[in-house]
Amino acid sequence: MIDCQKVGGYLYYIANPEDIDEDNLKKWMLDSFAVGNIIGENLSLKGRIVVDEIPSGRKHLTTLLEAMKENRVVDISYRPFNKSHGYTFPIEPYCVKLFENRWYVLGHNNRDEIKIYGLDRLEEVEITDGTYKLPKDFNADDYFSTAYGAVIGYDVKPERIVIRANEDHKHYMKSLPLHHSQRLIEDCGEYADFELYLSPTYDFVMKLLQVGAMTEIISPPSLRKTMKGWISDMYELYKND
User: Fold this and answer.
1) CA separation, residue 52 to residues 61, 102, 142 (Å)
2) Is this structure's pTM higher than 0.85?
């Protein structure tokens, strides 16, 4: 809510900032709007402002959001990365999610599965006349609460994970947590231990591998074993150099 106060002119301000602080979507929209305005006012610097592209965000996102507003079934042509051609089938779009510069749609498909699809792998999206009812207990935030990113691991149960970050990397984890469940256990100076509660899916393992030896999985043992397997495979690739 925007209010106005006359103090030597007109002062406009947000009357309910706590409402924004409690809503991730509103915070993201406000940040995006503010950044967009700042860049728009400084187009003379366009050759010195570097941004990343978000694949297929503009092409299919609008269509999916229109379908979601009216609870319309959509026909999608989806081509996985490892396939030479796409498949066309209907889905009931439940929600969309932005993660690491990629948009995803979570939907209930014609095989009675709730799956997630990357918009950059959608070749076509068409709104149909069919409608659906969103499950009464569906909440997008709750659905992804124990997931990392956009990967949903039905066969990977959430568990307590302890990560040790060295002195160089602990500040990055403090300033940008890996997951909303992350909390600092102890900062010992040379390293800091963090606790998370999530499903250690493929995406999460890939994220840990990105920082190499700057982090170590303390627990659970099963995740340590998984990390050891990936590191061993990487060593085999480079051991003869």
Assistant:
1) 17, 11, 28
2) no
